[in-house]
Specification:
globular, alpha+beta, 8 helices, seven-stranded antiparallel sheet, Pnp Oxidase, Chain A, single chain
Length: 198
């Protein structure tokens, strides 16, 4: 088996990064991101254990179960489950965390990388209350990097074939707003390009 060992060997296999992809990373949640978070009923949370093992954990509830505070931090309530609390334990020793949020019917996803803390503060937990019942804890994540990821994986998987997309701007419109130097025309042209694998 041929194994790549250096960044140079890997990057030599791929072409240059398009401006749309290179410029899409931003440090804080904007209006498009907040609308996406509010519409998302499902996400995957990634954390790291003290021994370095990575963990990905699904989280879901009704759309809006993740709250974005005025200061841009995200509140992710911990819903009842199997009580393993792996992600919460991980954050206690390593605050780095990453989310990928999905919205049924949309092919692009939102990734948020940042740092998190575990809280029992009632003023925070109230954002995750259901029928007046507060969660035991919540993660409060401070974004460091925010970006949309293109929809090729979800298109290829046909994950949403039966789903109806919500009334949100297209990824082309969002990225035209977020990426400096990218016009809507350029974004639309890139989005219309045929997947090279199909």
């Amino acid at each position: 088996m041929t194994t790549l060992r250096t960044p140079e060997d890997l990057l030599a296999l791929y072409g240059p990064v398009p401006v749309r992809a290179a410029g899409k990373v931003h440090p804080a949640l904007d209006a498009h991101d907040r609308a996406f978070v509010a519409a998302s009923p499902f996400l995957v949370l990634a954390t790291s254990s003290p021994d370095g093992l990575l963990d990905c954990s699904p989280r879901g509830d009704r759309p809006g179960f993740v709250t974005v505070l005025e200061d841009g931090r995200m509140v992710l309530p911990d819903r009842p489950g199997n009580n393993r609390v792996d992600s919460l334990l991980n954050v206690l020793s390593d605050p780095r965390a990453s989310l990928i949020l999905l919205v049924p019917g949309l092919t692009h996803t939102l990734r948020v990388n940042g740092t998190a803390v575990v809280t029992t503060d009632p003023d925070v937990l109230v954002h995750g209350a259901v029928n007046g019942r507060l969660p035991k804890t919540a993660l409060v994540l401070t974004p460091v990097e925010v970006m949309y990821q293109c929809g090729r994986a979800l298109v290829r998987s046909r994950l949403w074939e039966q789903a109806e997309a919500p009334d949100l701007p297209s990824l082309d419109e969002v990225l035209a707003d977020q990426v400096e130097g990218l016009t809507l025309e350029q974004s639309l042209r890139f989005g219309a390009e045929k997947d090279p694998l199909w």
